[in-house]
Structures are given as structure tokens and as C-alpha cells.
Design brief:
There is one protein chain. With 129 residues, this protein is of the alpha+beta class. It has one domain: Nuclear Transport Factor 2, Chain: A. The chain is 47% helix and 30% strand. The protein has 5 helices and 4 strands, in the order αααααββββ. A 4-stranded antiparallel beta sheet has the order 1-2-3-4.
Length: 129
């Protein structure tokens, strides 16, 4: 009986530790996840100026609002964005996830985010009208 209590306490302790680590990761990456979510939503709904503002200044020069408009021309609006992989370390945050349109089209999202700014992104395949 004592062994069962010890095993139960160890399992409970590991579960609490796992929950605390998960909560910490979600808290520390909340800004990066929101930045990635907003970038996909803004581009798919045509707000290219706001989307451009989420880019690192050097990347923003490469992808002006007009260039974003051209790249996302005909994109269907995303209604759901979920990140399935989050990797945060001292060099930034890498996000991988999926974006879904109302009619079920799915795009894969990949972002590198540093200090709250997108330094690299890939959205493939883009769901177009």
C-alpha cells in the first residue's frame, strides 16, 4: 500500500511539473504566437499595412504592403489558426502550425520570430479563391 502511495505521489508530482512547464512555455511564447496568428489573418483579409508592421524592419523593406498585396492576392480569409509546434530559445521563437478557411482549405504556417517581430515566414499552400 505504501508503494502505491509513493508511486501515486511521484506521478502526481510529474503531472504538476509537466503542467507548470507547459504553462510557462505558453506564457513565454504568447506574444510570438499572437504575432504569427495576426500576420496570417491580416494578410488573408487584406490589411497589408498592418501585416507589414509585424515584420522586422529589414524584412518589411523586402515585403512592402504592395508586395504583400500581390503575394496574397485572392487569398481566402482564415478563420482558424493553430500552432502545433513552438520552439523558444535565446535566438527567438519558431512556430509551425495550420491555418484553416471557412470552407476547410488548410495552409501550413512557419514563422521565425525575434523580439516580437517576424524575421522569416512561409505560408503554403496559400488558399486562394
Amino acid at each position: 500500500m505504501k508503494v502505491l502511495k509513493i508511486v501515486g505521489a511521484v506521478i502526481l508530482g510529474l503531472a504538476v511539473l509537466g503542467g507548470a512547464i507547459t504553462a510557462l512555455v505558453l506564457t513565454l511564447t504568447a506574444e510570438a504566437r499572437e504575432t504569427g496568428r495576426q500576420f496570417a489573418m491580416l494578410n488573408s483579409t487584406g490589411d497589408f499595412v498592418a501585416a507589414n508592421a509585424l515584420l522586422h524592419e529589414e524584412l518589411a523593406r523586402e515585403f512592402t504592403p504592395d508586395q504583400l498585396a500581390e503575394a496574397f492576392s485572392g487569398a481566402r480569409p482564415y478563420v482558424s489558426i493553430r500552432f502545433t509546434s513552438v520552439n523558444a530559445d535565446g535566438s527567438g521563437t519558431q512556430l509551425t502550425g495550420i491555418a484553416r478557411t471557412a470552407d476547410g482549405c488548410v495552409s501550413r504556417l512557419n514563422y521565425d520570430i525575434l523580439a516580437g517581430q517576424i524575421i522569416a515566414f512561409n505560408i503554403t499552400p496559400l488558399c486562394r479563391n
